[in-house]
Amino acid sequence: MTRLHGEEESGRGELVLAAAVSRTRWVGATVAVACAGSLLLLLTSGLGLVVGYVLGGGEGVSPTEVVGGQLSYLPAVLVVVGVAVLLVGARPRAVPLAWVVVAAVAVLALLGQSLGLPEGVERVSPFAVLPGVPVEPFDPVPGAVELVVVALLVGVGTWAYRRRDLG
Length: 167
Hints:
The chain has 167 residues and is mainly alpha-helical. The chain has helices at residues 2-10, 12-18, 23-55, 63-71, 74-90, 97-111, 119-122, 140-163. The model has no long low-confidence stretch (mean pLDDT 88).
């Protein structure tokens, strides 16, 4: 999503918008690429885990459960995308904070327990509310709530992008 801001800063955004491309369509296309890329990366990581289990002699692991477990994190990844859309649309000078959000979520997800952080701090991450599939049973409610949050973030970010002066 920060690419959209980069295109705007470099002046190439004006060229895109001078054609028959609306701001909404441009943001929407960028969001679609970010979502598709996120889905592809989660799918690839799930398949990589399956290959690792098979090569490691793992038994009793269902490939569909492993891949499904990775895909169950998509709503949390999209929350981060939504935050980036909101920053690009509403506060373009604050766009570097999108990378701070990515780093914070990664640290909380990967090192939160190891660092002995309080549970309240760990729960800030959008990954914290999702069940750890396949170890925990799948629950669609937290993911659905996160998708509603994503829709709101993207909607407000797109609305703000349409209203602000570019460049």
